[in-house]
């Protein structure tokens, strides 16, 4: 055996101790510390998640108020559309409503013509061409009442012509009135 000097023995012992401590640090202490910090981070993330959940649950009254507001808006919108689901019945309802409004304002309806229903912005639209005769003031009142009615109706087209050369306010108007049914268009997805 080779004899080691006491000075070299201390040096080898110090180096070996350093290497053992370094290996202990690299393979034991550092992984344990890293795992503990990951566990602490996960715990903090879960605490933040739970706090956010409690914050959302504490806003229950806000969400109930929003739900009530949405239901109210929905019921108001249902009143704005025609109640009928069939286009022919909705057209009859629209025609009856236009006739009652014309009677209120003194406008004489000469002719009705119902067009085919079509989808406008995904809503089923019932268009009716109406030909009327009236004085200018009665016609403007009729248009005002028609567009401000509880049922949502829009005058899409309108043409007015004078029919009496002596009475300049005697007019004949042709207009396209559109009303809406609450039936929405279902979009088909393309299959590729």
Query: What percent of residues adopt helix (DSSP H or I)?
Result: 40-55%
Order of H and E elements: HHHEEEHEE
Strand content: 25-35%
- The unreliable regions are none
- State Rg: 41 Å
Q: Might you state the CATH topology name of the largest domain?
A: Alpha-Beta Plaits
Choose one word for the global shape: rod-shaped
Largest sheet: 5 strands, antiparallel
Give the rounded overall mean pLDDT.
87
Distance between the termini: 83 Å
The level 1 CATH classification of the largest domain is Alpha Beta
- The total strand number stands at 5
CATH superfamily of the largest domain: Ribosomal protein S6/Translation elongation factor EF1B
Q: Please name the CATH architecture of the largest domain.
A: 2-Layer Sandwich
Q: How many domain modules?
A: 2
* Tally of individual helices: 4
Instruction: Find the structural class using helix and strand composition.
Output: alpha+beta
Main features:
Alpha-Beta Plaits, 4 helices, 192 residues, 2 domains, rod-shaped, 5-stranded antiparallel beta sheet, 25% strand, 54% helix, alpha+beta
